[in-house]
Amino acid sequence: MSGSKTISVDQGAWNRAQRSARELATVRREMPRMLKDVRRQSQADTRRMIAPLERRQNATDHRLGRLSAQTREFEQRTDARLREQATHIRRVQEESRREVRRLDRELRQERLERRRQIAELGSQINDIIVRRDQASALAQAFLADARVMAEEIGTLPHERFAPGRLAVLEGRLAGTTETAAQVDAAYALSSAQDLYYDLSDLRLDVRQAEQEWLAARLEALEALRRADARIEQFAKTPMLDENGVEIPGVVLDLDFWTDGRLTTLRDEVRRETEELADAGCPRSVEELREVIQKHAPGCGYEQRLDELLECGAARMYAAQIRYNTAEKIADALGEEGYDLVEDVYEGGDHRASHFTKLRHLAGEGDVVVEVAPEGNTGMSIKLLSYDRDPAQSRRAERTANMLAKLRDEGVPVGDPVDRGTEPTPEEADFELIQQKRRNVG
Amino acid sequence: MSAELVTERLRRLSRSAQTGAPTFVVYGVGTCDAFIDGAAHRLDLGQALHDALAAAGFQRIVFFSLDHMLTVRDPAAVLRRGEPTGQAEDTGSGRGRVSRRMSGGPMGHYQVRTDAEGPGRAAAPAPTPPAGSGRMTDKAALDMIRGLMRQADVRTAVVLESIELLERWHGDLRDLATLLDSWLANRSGSANAYVLVFNQDSLAEVERFAESSRNLPRMLASAVRAERGRDDRPGLIGPPLEAELTTLIHRERIRAGLRIEDWKGLSHTVKLMARTRFPLYAWETRLRHLASQGATLDAATLRARGWISGPDVGTGTVWGRLAELKGLEPVREVLENLRWQPPAGREAPARHMVFTGNPGTGKTTIARLVGEIFLELGLLRSGHVVEVLGPDLISQYVGETALKTGQRIDEAMDGVLFIDEAYALDNSSHGKEAIDTLVPRMENDRGRLVVILAGYRPDIHKLLEANPGLRSRFPSRYHLHFPDHGPDVLLKIAHAGFAERGLAETPEFAEALAKAVERMYAHRDPESFGNARDIRELVNGTGAEWAGRVREDRELPLTPEDLPSDLLRTTAPPPAEELLAPLDALIGLGAVKDAVRDLVGQVNLARRRSCGEVVAPHMLFVGPPGTGKTTVAREIGTILHRLGLLGRDAVLEASREHLVAGYVGQTAIRTKKAINEATGGVLFIDEAYRLSRGGERDFGQEAIDTLVPEMENRRGRLVVIAACYTEEIEAFLAANPGLASRFTLRIDFPPYKVEELVAILRNLATAEGFRLTPEAEEPVRAWFAVAREQADFGNARTARGLFGEIKKRLAARVEADPAADHDEIRGEDVPHAGT
């Protein structure tokens, strides 16, 4: 039998600690301060995104002032409705979304009705041939309105939300204008009217799509910011005991105990946030919806965070259990006449092995005990004897006594396995041990 | 480790251990107890010893016992235990504690609770450790001790736990003995020490064990000797004192939710608890039980559960209670003066006391108060009173008396050893053994022990006279005499006694009781009066009488008839004629009858005035022989008893032979014995002049000298009637100058006249059914006329002699003439005058 032994420790005993680790993630859903911060950020996002739209609205108002009397009121009503919709969109709530859809339905209905009335008016004119001049003027007015509308649409991100549709309508506008120039404009009245309404519809579509995209972006941003806040919150979190009560003064450094996986998660969230916050964000509404889905409470990021929490807490508990075991071993050896010389962590890292050096009071020599992690929550014990007089029977007896005491204290240690070699002086060099860098990750 | 944190009961040991002595013994009932230290932590003896030794400057403390063999405790552990987190508290015996100095894990020293019931544990490949493992081998332990004790740089104490077990079972005893002995011999100036823990209650027992030890004699003897040499027995661990119990209570209040409502009475309750001398763990269990039941802690609750007994210690300060003591002014003054102590010198003054007085005069009560006073003054640490009877210290077996006495002394350490009936120590070689054990302890432990001897005054004086060594230990100012309680105090005790039994008193009863008590007091024997004890008897007797009278109707109050009849004198005495009826048959005795009538009159007057007490007088019966002195004396006994002037209807007739002995000193004993026997009734000394007749060298004089003071002392309880012939009376009274004045009633028994003698003869005849014919009276008269002139004339005795003669002659006559009336005495039956 040599002076080095390894002793395995059954891992199944830490159930209680594992439960506590799981509990850690679930008991912290209430975070009013965090929600307040997130809301403030969202409001800032909203203001930032809405500002250019509002500036554009002034130009729009000026342009729509150039419309003929017959369409001006029609467009102004549509605008009022859009604004109403926008206020709901900004609230970014499911309820608002329903309201937006309702408003949209009403708007479309209203426009159809209006169009029908105007079309009727046109057909009446058609019937009265003698008033051709009048019809001709009306067609010219529609064409002018269509041009204003096309110009207006040109200021909108129509290529993003209704790609190609404006070009088609502009082609039709050119054709109709030509026809009206070549023949009596009165003959082009119907085409001009249709053209105008198609342009008007396009404007509405683009505006609504833009609003919907903005709303989705805002919502996605808020979800991201919420996730970020949660990550921040859990980065340093008080530990709970087995009864779910905070252990005073004990804080779980989540990034440390997950070997930096928290930072990875946070970087991911921040990258996405930056992307979404950029006005030129290329994501579609559907893509944005996916982001929202991913960050909704209980999904995606949050699950990942909970996993990290559970894992980090379990590892910290396990490290403490390892330390407790080291304490028990030291106490057991203390009863065998040993006194503590020093104890260190490999590389000064609590995640790594713990080393205790004890010296026999009556000068029989030193013992070094290493309690090393095994996997996330397991451990193994290594016992190195530096006896002045390496009497096998004393060693065996000492080990047996120590193991018996550990078992008495509820540490499920197995039987020692002899390593077959005497321990080297380096293994007892605590300075060296402390300088070792642990291979994190 | 601050000394204040050391548990109270081990502070003396801690102080003593600073001296650098090589051995200490620890013993006493407390060695099996739990302890509470100054910071309210609960400790076992090991931890408590550890703290005490750490405070004494030991840097390393090693425990050596059979079950754990060797345990090293770390002094720093104690310091940390005081930290507010208190995580280390109560985590078992606290062995080892090396870990307390480790750097801490990610969660510091927090202990993660692992799931002991979890499947992991069940599946653990942990075989049951073989028996005997889990501890060092004997040899390894001894090597360890040897190594540690050799080191002079780290001050080490080795505590040998349960020496008795080690001595018997340790596998390597020879090595242990050698180790200890060689260490004693070559300590090489190190300040290391061995602490030997014994499971014995007293040093005497430890000593006995040490003497009988075959394996470790030298070491043990040396340790015991060292302890004996220490003034204050630092190794004696007693039961918990008030301070420790108070801390325990507060601990249970916080931990177990023990309810306390009477905060003012708490110290009083604690005092009662401490007096029981129960171990701390017993109180802990009880307090938890109370807490679990939601009961409040107070004296009444503890009493109801039978956890405290004995008399209450009284409320208020000890000085207040002292001031309330009635009738004990001299005693009170001495005790109050204890408060103003002169500055203490290097030598502790002795405070042992002698209490003399009759039983029931409050000696025990005062002894308890003395304990409390010394406690209050800080002169004793516990102030408890160990009460023993002198005879209980004595044993028939050689050496046993010293052991018994030693045990009781150890029990009383820090308190008061109250030895009642101490005179029992006087009468044998065993008594001397007890005194020989007591005296040195009284001297050596005078700072921690107060011994009070109590008993009857003469006996105690005799004891002290015979043992000058003992006497010199009691400062004369602490010789306190307890007078008998006055009637008012006795009456209060009686009222309290009835109230305690829930018996109601009618006003008539109260009045009768007052009289009865007064009578009891007046009739008491000053040398043996039982005081409160006798009152208790009175109360018990009265209660029994009441119970017999009321039977089922137990709400009925006490009435005067329940009082013992001999004390009940509320009714008028029987009329003089009724009392005198037995004397009627006697001829003459006019002076006797006058004297009795006189007494009846006095008793009646005193009764009507409801005050004063008539005292039965000692009497001198003077007269020639045969004049009825003895007969009258017997009747007087009955009459005085019926008048209520004497407790008993008893007459002890004593002559010189009963009182006087042939050797020096014996007469007084015989006389005393007769007096004691007669007390309560009449001592009739016939032919009293014979006591004084022997002259100065005769022991008769001793009898008279013994008698005279007792006649005064027992006035009212004993009536001495001395009978003397007329011509001897002067010589008798001259034998002692006090004698004449003691006899306040002299009754002369004149010689009978002829007619009276005839009447006596007639009565004698009538009594036997004879008839004295008138013609026979004349020769009778003539016969008496001649006989009376003779020097040896015996009056009634002579008349009885004549009657016998007459009966003989009558018998002869009837024999000769069977037809004659055999009941009739005729003239011819009477002898002639002068024959």
From TrEMBL, chain A:
Residue stretches in coiled coil: 93-120
Compositional bias (Basic and acidic residues): 408-421
Annotated region (Disordered), positions in chain: 408-441
Keywords carried by this UniProt record: Coiled coil
Name of the molecule in the record: Uncharacterized protein
Native species: Actinomadura harenae
UniProtKB/TrEMBL annotation, chain B:
Name this protein carries in UniProt: AAA family ATPase
CDD domains: AAA
UniProt region (Disordered), positions on chain: 81-136
Residue ranges constituting the AAA+ ATPase domain according to the UniProt record: 349-484, 615-753
Source organism phylogeny: Bacteria, Bacillati, Actinomycetota, Actinomycetes, Streptosporangiales
Keywords on record: ATP-binding, Nucleotide-binding
Top-level division of the source organism's lineage: Bacteria
Annotated source species: Actinomadura harenae
InterPro entries: AAA+_ATPase, AAA_lid_6, ATPase_AAA_core, CbxX/CfxQ, CbxX/CfxQ_RuBisCO_ESX, P-loop_NTPase
